[in-house]
Design goal:
Layout (H helix, E strand, L loop, with lengths): L1 H32 L6 H20 L3 H21 L8 E3 L14 H7 L5 H4 L13 E5 L2 E9 L5 H4 E13 L5 E4 L11 E12 L2 E7 L6 H17 L15 E7 L16 E2 L3 E9 L4 H10 L2
Antiparallel strand pairs: 1-2, 2-10, 3-4, 5-6, 5-10, 6-7, 6-8, 8-9
Helix pairs in contact: 1-2, 1-3
Amino acid sequence: MKEEKEENSEVNWLELIRSFIAITLLFTLLLTYTGFLDSIAKLIGLIIIVFLIVLILFLNNYLSDLREIAEILLIFILLSKIFIGPRMLVPLVAVTSQSMLHQKNNPNEWKNRLISHDIPKEKIEKFPMQNGFDRGDMIVVKTPDGKGEFNLILPFGEKKKREIFKFTWPTFFSKTKLGDVIIYERDFAHGGGEPIIHRVVGIVHIKNWSVEKIEGTLDCLTIDEINSKYIPMIVNCINTKGNCPYKSYPSTGDFNFYITKGDNNKRTDQCGSIAYPINDKQLLARGWIRLPYIGWLKLIMNSFLRI
């Protein structure tokens, strides 16, 4: 009987340690990606809180259920990063506006607007997500650049020094093309919190710090403006001086700018005071599959819990 009790005690301690690691890792990932975990003090506080939660659940025999949920979520996050490759923690985006809604009384209006910007109709017909989507929908997303990416980031400190290591691998998907629906990170100049999900209606290919080629439309922008105003912004960011409105930016003079637009909006984001031209590093993911109405759950939680 004594040996059996000792064996059970050892198994329980193993369960306690395993649960503590899984739950701490999950909470650390979630809070790091939401930007809350930005100091050593908060990290230490999180570890203490998780330890107390784990201990209370352990004493009340509820720990195994929570551990299983944490492990399932960690496996889901890992598999989505490997096979789908978004630069987001979870490959799901809840739609919070009607900027991509296609009006029932004029379903082709969004196409006509693009045609008026000299984008050929035959190209528009091949664009993904032809039916658009509405507030409250959930979008399953995929890689923005055809690659999967894993980077180990410290949850605190200067952004440039937080990344410990990063590696990438190819996925089954292509790079971002004209017409794709992208999720992009906002710049500092235009405020707001959550990323924006809009369609790519123009691509500016930059080669050695100069415009090389343009696909689609620039809308109200000009090549001279790209060369004289927006490319220097990237240079400022790299050199850490002057006006740098981008949170994320390329490290060399070969990159793309993207002109974006909500299908239900009359103007592009860049000409409607929503965003500066989007650079490669701002791309978080691309829209892939629409799940109608499921996003309302997150929107309701947002309104009550402010998450």
